Amino acid sequence: MAVDMRMPTTMMVSFAVTIALAVLCQSASGTTYQPNWASIDSRPLPAWYDEAKLGIFIHWGVFSVPSYSSEWFWWNWKGAQATPAVVGFMQQNYRPDFTYGDFAKDFTAEFFEADQWAKMFEGSGAKYVVFVSKHHEGYTNWPSKYSFNWNSMDVGPNRDIVGELAGAVKNHTKLRFGLYHSLFEWFNPLYLQDKANNYTTQDFVFKKTLPELYEIVNKYEPEVIWSDGDWDAPDVYWNSTVFLAWLYNQSPVRDTVVTNDRWGKGIACHHGGFFTCTDRYNPGKKQNRKFENAMTIDKYSWGFRRNARLEDFLSMDELIHTFIITVSCGGNMLMNVGPTKYGIITPVYQERLAGMGQWLAVTGEGIYSSQPWTYQNDTLNPDVWYTMKTSGDFKDVYAFLLKWPSSGTLDLGAPVPGSTTVVTLLGYSGSFNFKSTGTQGMRITLPTISFLSMPCQWAWAFKLTSITN
Questions:
Q1: To 5 degrees, how large is the angle CA 431–CA 436–CA 441?
Q2: What DSSP designation does 146 have?
Q3: Helix/strand/coil percent split, the chain, to 5
Q4: Residue 349: pLDDT above 50?
Q5: How many degrees, rounded to 5, is the angle at CA 275 between CA 46 and CA 288?
Q6: Cα angle: 89, vertex 69, 130; to 5 degrees
Q7: First-to-final CA distance of the chain
């Protein structure tokens, strides 16, 4: 499959001038963000994002057809250092002249129902979704004017997948809709030529990357722009700050949109909106900047794998523990699912999504809109992690217990209870007796609770009101 690279030089120059003029306009909030990192970094994150805590990532594309190895299948087959297992897979199962483009016709999506997906994601307790509009293979999941014959309308499902999912999410759920977009493409000739020129030319950026970004923002109005594929080239090559200034000043989502930090070589974990730093970023301690732990249910792949084993998927315990630690340290978790080529989210993913929703229905009070407390992990009990909400002059602290003690008591080293402190267990009626243990710490007496009366199955949240420290 070929990508339409045609754009006259005059159009390219006009496009660049239009962008430059646009970023000088003022945002609706009255603040004008300039195309430099000091200004871009000064923009506050819209409150909804920090309050949300959980999002769903969806990796779906032509790579879902071979559904072997990972979403990097094409690179692992034809890249600079091919993976022998992937090369062998193709030799054993496909004719010698088979190309990656030949997979696209089998990206059929015949069972894809956007409303069903949207309701499933909402049922997980997530508050936003981030859908892969284009991965590094260059195939766009919308009918892009800049990706001729290599998009979901021209080849494969013959549908505007992004548009269908955006409509379902916005019209039938309370979820926020976001889009992932890869800045680069492995084998695009324009990109490869810019790379050969040591990124002193920007043909790929102005003919492909930026037009696509403006197209998806103006057409689908995503409230998350999740950039990726930035690591080889500097941010000035990608024209990142110019685009972000436009996004924050003039775009239709300027007041609510959030962005990540993958906007050029060396930028991740230093500049942008929320920080992702690396995949599966979970630092285990409070961060000064809002971060997101983008992680996978399948331990080895973001895309669907036909040969995945049950043990390759994180258990509910592992997912919830990862989530609790992430939120305790001030982060959001973006939990990934990989649909099949025909548009089904397989039962193992469905079970994990439903389990997360059931758990959050009980414990969500201590998760949504919470803040990191003075302590993240308890000073005495390593199986306890904390979140907090402010209540007047006092703090309501939520102690998330990863393992239920067998002793009949729960010893905590960090909290200092006040005279009006009350201890309850979210999802369970009544309060629990406790006593202070010196100047800091408390011992909570746990009654005998039958298995059927336990409020949830995996981790438990104790609410400690009016904590003084």
A1: 100
A2: T
A3: 30, 20, 50
A4: yes
A5: 80
A6: 145
A7: 62
Tokens of 209: 């990357």
Q: Are strands 423-425 and 384-391 parallel, antiparallel or unpaired?
A: unpaired
Span 14-55, pLDDT tens digits: 455 455 555 555 555 679 999 999 999 999 999 999 999 999
For the question of whether the overall pTM of this predicted structure is more than 0.85, the answer is yes
Residue 314 banded pLDDT, cuts 50, 70, 90: very high
Q: Which tokens go with 35?
A: 């195309």
Alpha carbon separation from 150 to 5, 117, 182, 346 (Å, rounded): 12, 24, 15, 26
Quick count: other Cβ atoms within 10 Å of Cβ 392? Answer: 7
What SS3 class is residue 11? helix
Residue that the structure tokens 């009544």 belong to: 430
Give the pLDDT confidence score for residue 452 in this predicted structure: 87
Answer for the pair 458, 359: CB distance below 8 angstroms, yes or no.
Answer: yes
The position carrying tokens 């006040």 is 418
Q: Six-digit token pair at 460?
A: 């438990």
392's tokens: 């007047």
How far is Cα 28 from Cα 24, in angstroms, rounded to an integer? 13
How many other C-beta atoms can be found within 10 angstroms of the C-beta atom of residue 36? 13
For 188, the token pair is 């695009």
Helical axes 347-363 vs 316-328, angle rounded to 10°: 50
Contact 164, 157 (CB under 8 A): no
The token pair at 256 is 């609510």
Query: Do the Cβ atoms of 388 and 372 come closer than 8 Å?
Result: yes
Structure tokens at 439: 């100047």
Amino acid identity at 25: C
For residue 446, pLDDT beyond 50:
yes
